[in-house]
Structures are given as structure tokens and as C-alpha cells.
Amino acid sequence: MPFFIGRDREARRAYGFDEVALVPGQITINPNEVDITWKLGDLKLEIPFIASAMDGVVDPEFAIAMGKLGGLAVLNLEGIQTRYKDPEKILKKIASASNDEATVLVQEVYKEPIKEELIRERIRKIKEAGVLAVASSIPQNASKYGKLAQDAGCDIFVVQSTVTTVKHISTEYEVLDFKRFCSELKIPVIVGNCVSYDAALELMGTGCAGLLVGIGPGAACTTRGVLGIGVPQVTATVDCASARDYYYKKTGEYISIITDGGMDTGGDICKAFACGADAVMIGSAFARAKEAPGRGYHWGMATPHRNLPRGTRIHVGTTGTLEEILYGPAKMDDGTQNLVGALRTGMGNVGARSIKEMHLTEIIIAPEIKLEGKILQKAQRVGMGK
After folding, report:
1. pLDDT tens for residues 97-106?
2. Range of the domain at 22
3. Do 211 and 200 meet the contact criterion of CB atoms below 8 Å apart?
4. CA 5 to the chain's CA centroid
5. pLDDT tens-digit profile of 1-52?
6. Model-level pTM?
7. Which residues contact 191 (CB under 8 A, 6 or more apart)?
8. Is 7 a member of any domain?
9. What is the tally of structural domains in the chain?
10. 4: in domain
11. Is 193 helix (H, G, I), strand (E, B) or coil?
12. Is the pLDDT of residue 195 over 50?
């Protein structure tokens, strides 16, 4: 329902993860017996978790580890991995630099040209390990790198920018024809990001297999602060999922919704699926893994598909192995580990046998859900009081 924010000016209320809660179901299910598989095009995937295309999160080794655990990790084709033969030296410098030094350093390292032979090398390394290879670029470079990645063995290609629309106007560079691009590639294409029903519906008509939802919610993204643009993730996911359902009824084609960013805990992830997500893309949680190349840091704006200012480095620390973050056992009490277990348990408690049934979960507006009765946790800095 719209509200008046001033004379003759209406605004719609939007909601984020901290403002809602899920209602338990009338039946409950053994968490080990729920189905969390999902599909992207013709691919059936074991767990609905994707690691963000950030240089501090994903390198070939991390992508291999993620793939062996059943998830996906997106390699940024315009980042450090494809600019330097030995990116490890650069990553060590960024991780050990002071905050002021890191900003300048990150800006400098991205001036090195991208090398096509390194794109092929990185993708082949992932494929040789027997897991799915996923790579990304911004729309302006998708035509150039999409075919190159596919020929190198890439299984899924991601075209990602801060705000993605079918109708983009520019006289400075050639605008990507998404429909043509998706039809020419023989592998599934994920596009994004968007947050509105109409934009999502138009993007689905391009032939993409998945749609990324989220503008500005990520820990390392400043779009909302710098530009004032974005929609909280609960409302954005619900709106785009509604577009998916309408498109499916109209065409018979199911386009997967991937909520991208803004999720810190298993609870946030459960809420994303209840809002209509088929999968989630996460940066900060995986940047904390010991296998992450950034060693507890990530710098989303330094990669081409994120917003300015480039060079901002976010420290998240390292809290465990990738396997602990995904499957446990949790060593932290704040909900940032055993994310797969949290999703399974959440689905069991609301009575959802599958992710599609999770979409039907009752959601209530509950802005005090994180604070209610948590005075002792806050005083002792444990659990939700941290």
C-alpha cells in the first residue's frame, strides 16, 4: 500500500531481512529429508549457494573447493586472476596493507590489462578438477569474453552490472543485446542485477536462465550510499519472484531467481528463499573462509561490475573452513556457519519439502524479531547480541 511522504507524492513501503520473520508450519519435517536441489537451465545443482564474483572471495582454488561441496563460485574475468600470472603476490599485498594503502593499491592493480590466455588458463584449471566452471563479466565486455570462456570449457556465464536493464542507452560504447547474446551462447546465462518487477520481466524475455536480484545490499557495495539507489532485499526478491511466476505461466519457461547480497546469517538466507529465491549469491560469508584468496577481506567495488568508489576494502576476518561455513559443525554462535544446515532446518520447521514449497511460507512483518528478549545476549555479546 502506498503512503504519502509529502504533498501529492506517494512512496511504497519496502522491507529488508531484519524487518520480517517466518511463521512455523502446521507440519514439520526432518531437516535431513528436505530437498534443497535447484535447477539452472538444464543443470541440476546440489545446493543453492553461489559465491560472489569478487577477487577477495573467488579464485580457481576456491571455485574448485566450492564445486566439490556442491555449490558454485563465480570467477571474475576482469579481476586480478586474469591480469596477473601470479595473483598471489598481489593478494598478499592487499591483505597486509593499511586501510589507506589498500585503497590506493587496489586502484593501481586494476590498471594492468586483462590477458585472454589467463582467462583460458583459469577456467581450464577449474574444469580439470571435475567441477562446474562459472565466470562473469560486465555487459560491455560480455560479447568478447563470453564466447572465449565458453570455448575454454565454462559451464555457466554471468553478465553482471550494478543496475541491469534490457533497454540501456549509450553513445560511448556498443550496448549488449542480451537476447542475441543468450541465444548465441550454448551455456546457461545469468544476468543482473535488478530489483523491480518490470525490469525482471523484460530481462527474463532475453532467454537468460537465471536473474540476480539485489542493488546495494552487499557489505562491500556502496550503491545505496553513493547513489541513493536500491530496494531492500525482501521486497526486491518478492517482486522479482512474482515476475518469474508470471513469466512461467505465460511461457512455460522457469527463470531462477538468485538473491544477491545482504545475507549475513542462516536466518537471512531462509528468509530469502521464503521470499521466492531459488538460490542465493553470497560474498561476505565466503570471504571469511580460510580458502578465500582475500584472507578475510573483500573489495567488491574494485571489480568492474560494482559501483564506485573503487578500492574500498572490507575486513570480515576468517572464521573457519569453507566446509564449516556451508555444512558445519558451527564454531560460531552468530548464525554465520553451517548455512546449509540452517536452510534445511528452516525448511523443516516451516514444513517445506522443497525450495518451491519454501516459497509458500507465511511471512510476517516483525521489526523487533532480532531484539525481542535478547537483552542478556547483548550484554554478554553472544549469539544475536554480538
Report:
1. 887 787 788 8
2. 14-385
3. yes
4. 32
5. 678 889 989 999 999 999 999 999 999 999 999 999 999 999 999 999 999 9
6. 0.92
7. 158, 159, 160, 164, 178, 182, 203, 206, 208, 210, 211, 212
8. no
9. 1
10. no
11. strand
12. yes
> HSE-up of 316 (CA within 13 Å, CB side)?
29
In angstroms, the first-to-last Cα distance of the chain is 35
List 182, 208, 221, 240, catalytic entry = 221
pLDDT at 370: 72
Cell of 343: 536452510
Report residue 197 as a C-alpha cell.
518487477
Active site (annotated) includes residue 223? yes
Whether 340 maps to a domain, the answer reads: yes
Rounded CA separation 58/67 (Å): 12
CA distance 349 to 4: 38
CB atoms under 10 Å from CB of 36, counted, come to: 21
Q: Model confidence at 375, in pLDDT bands (50, 70, 90)?
A: low
Domain at 97, CATH number: 3.20.20.70
User: Is position 221 annotated as part of the catalytic site?
Assistant: yes
Options 82, 103, 223, 312, the catalytic residue: 223
Domain-embedded: residue 65: yes
